[in-house]
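tl;dr need the bound structure. longer version: we got a ligand (AHM) that a collaborator sent over and nobodys looked at where it sits. i said id run it. heres the input, straight from their email, havent touched it
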Amino acid sequence: MRRISLSRFLIEEQRNKHVISSELRLLIEVVARACKAISIAIGKGALADVLGGAGADNVQGEAQKKLDVISNEILLEANEWGGHLAAMASEEMELPHPIPNRYPKGEYLLLFDPLDGSSNIDINVSVGTIFSVLQCPEGMAPTEQAFLQSGTRQLCAGYAVYGPTTLLVLTLGDGVNVFTLDRELGSFVLTQSAVKIPADTREFAINASNNRHWEPPVKRYVDELLAGKDGPRGSDFNMRWVASMVADVHRILCRGGIFMYPLDAKTREKGGKLRLLYEANPMAFIVEQAGGAATTGRQRILELEPANLHQRVPVILGSKNEVERVAAYHAG
Ligand code: AHM
Ligand code: MG
């Protein structure tokens, strides 16, 4: 089998398809290298004393895990000196991280959730890193305002899943490709290209313990699925919930499904549970590039105009026909 490394893939995308610049290519390589370092830290677990809480809360008021802090530092440190970035923003930091003056600056903005699903870290279940790249608007300082761009403006998005294997899933706006980390060689190798999410599915993912807080359209949709063969859908549906968005979205990328963290009475005041700029937007970009759909229930996620860096949104994404059905129930 001919092996195509991430580096070769990116060089060919740049040279033959002109979908990325050489600076963006190098930026993606650095992010991938940081994901490798995070994968190694996670893999050591208790042996390196990296499990458990960090003893602090992040800007979202959530208790940070040691690996949240470590992953954030790995990404900052790896990306600040390369000269490709104007600034970075992270789930773990209230404000954007400017590039220190001792380093050259570039035109891109990098956003990330350094360790998604970190409540799963101590029980040895898959977690991941989610990232998104934007262009810093010309003439604008790389402050919070510069990051407030709709998801349609993303130049690239991806996630790493740290599971039985470490995977990097990437879109440059030209389809979705999956790379598997060869742990011996330390390089990501292309293992799936032009991934497509089937339009129909018999599998759904939602935290069902929130049932009593859901809005009527979501209640109706899930009730119909639960009714199975005897209900209006005339078919049995299966439910899965890893509680790591990366793992749940990756399952959908592999075999279809619908993922929902909808608006509910518990999260209404905050606008939802998941964050727009470094969770919903990159995942929506990947899912759409794989032929799926992503909505808040009322609007296409990628068209939302962000109001602040840590804005939260309802997320419904995956197999197109099911996502459209949920959106139709909201419209009705
Ligand atoms: P995190 O970024 O702090 O890890 O939170 C996001 C996670 C998602 O990965 C996952 O879909 C969701 O929160 C799980 O929520 P719940 O605890 O309600 O199952
Ligand atoms: Mg997250």
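gonna send this back to them w/ a short note. Helices lie at 6-17, 22-44, 66-79, 144-147, 216-226, 245-255, 276-289, 320-331.
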